[in-house]
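One thing: mind reviewing this one?
=====
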Amino acid sequence: MDFRQDIREFIGNNLTMEHEDAQISDNDNYFEMRFVNSLFAMRLVDFVERRFQIEIGNEDLDLANFSTINRLHDLIERKLAAKEVAQ
């Protein structure tokens, strides 16, 4: 399943004021581009856990997993697949 639109909407709603009209592609690193602030990272983890009903463990808390829409989508798919196998 493709969750990119949900991720795009969340990111779009949390851009810093000076970048609120920015267009982000699925491979843009919004942290490196400074479109988001440090508090955003915590909000993003919370959003992912709540929206997709998955647990982000310490081993997943690598900024690379969260730095682009595509990387975050891949992490979500891996976590959902692992959750399904465990059930």
Summary: Helices lie at 4-12, 38-52, 63-66, 69-86. The radius of gyration is 13 Å. The mean pLDDT is 93.
